[in-house]
Fold this sequence. Notes:
The protein is an all-alpha fold. 90% of the residues lie in helices and 0% in strands.
Amino acid sequence: MNKVVLSAVVPLLSLALIAIFAITLGYAFYQIHHNTEIGTIGVIGLGLALLILTPLIAFLLERSSEK
């Protein structure tokens, strides 16, 4: 592809992917909070799991790829 086209497509694609991720995550948080019995505790638990498991998984993948 042309460099000019890539310089326009890559930022737009990254913006779209981030928007899709944010909307999906927000919908999941909303559904957990309003439609389950665990409510606020479930949202906090999911947020903590994302906060802790994301770097942990990245660390484990990085460590396994160094071998």
